[in-house]
Design goal:
With 152 residues, the chain is mainly beta. The chain contains no helices and 7 strands.
């Protein structure tokens, strides 16, 4: 995970937030009987995400405009229940498959700051969904395209 994606973070303007991190998940699917209309399934997903948000600031207390970096780190652990349908033109032959799914879950986000309690740099870390510790409700909606080579 990287934002902004195609800019060097070391050359960003002062007071602009940048983010790096990673996410990985394991998903288990339980398929129903294979039919031409598709294979309905339900599944479970367990996801871990780690994000490092940072902002470079000018420190006006020194004559050389020394730069300081403040950071806010977040770690999330989420469980999601997923329902989907895997569609194929002919379930008995090789061909293109489309997997459509959606899910709803529950998780927890832990956030830590690099600054002390006397300072407040939260204005640099305003996000659409907020960046605070607490309960999260992940929503998963997706489409996956694939190709089935051989049916047994």
């Amino acid at each position: 995970i990287r934002s902004p994606l195609f800019k060097s973070h070391s050359h960003l303007p002062l007071d602009e937030r940048y983010t790096t991190g990673y996410s990985f998940y394991a998903r288990q699917k339980f398929y129903q009987k294979d039919r031409d209309q598709g294979m309905l399934y339900f599944g479970h997903e367990l996801r871990f995400t780690s994000l490092h948000h940072a902002v470079r600031l000018a420190d006006n207390s020194t004559p050389r405009q020394y730069l300081q970096t403040v950071t806010k780190d977040a770690a999330m652990l989420e469980y999601t229940f997923v329902v989907g349908d895997r569609l194929m033109k002919d379930a008995q032959r090789p061909g293109i498959t489309v997997d459509i799914y959606m899910g709803l879950g529950l998780g927890y986000r832990y956030v830590s700051n690099s600054w002390g309690s006397g300072e407040n740099y939260n204005k640099f870390f305003k996000l659409r969904r907020g960046l605070n510790s607490g309960i999260t409700v992940p929503i998963r909606i997706g489409v996956t395209l694939g190709y089935v080579l051989k049916k047994n």
